[in-house]
Amino acid sequence: MTSRQHAERGDPRQDLVAAGVGYVAFARDNPMLFKLMFGSERPSSDDSDLVQHASGAFATLVNGVRDIRGGDPMADADGLKDIAAAWSIVHGIANLLIAGRMGFLQPLLEHDPETVLADIIVRSLPQQ
């Protein structure tokens, strides 16, 4: 996720899209770890590495939404909804892809997965 983020630095919307594409790519490349980090059956938060990675992913999301909105998204209801929308779309895509539930997208993903994912993710981002 980090290399994609740094490659796109500059435009807050593009930065958050890049982070989202990285999130989905991580899930596709590491489905078992992704399920462990975010699954409902995950172990308690006693695993500091697991907590650190999950917290880092959430901080990237919150900071990205903050950069788009120009203020702390945790401070008001609309900001919280923007965080939920952005996370839901990438988390949902990630889960559906690793579960094999988005077969209809496979032809598109085979040719240019990053562009396809970016096009989907941008639809959920908050307006500036």
UniProtKB/TrEMBL annotation:
Domain spans labelled HTH-type transcriptional regulator MT1864/Rv1816-like C-terminal: 16-104
Annotated Pfam families: TetR_C_33
Per UniProt, the keywords (alphabetical) are: Transcription, Transcription regulation
State the protein's name: HTH-type transcriptional regulator MT1864/Rv1816-like C-terminal domain-containing protein
What is the native source organism of this protein?
A: Litchfieldella anticariensis (strain DSM 16096 / CECT 5854 / CIP 108499 / LMG 22089 / FP35) (Halomonas anticariensis)
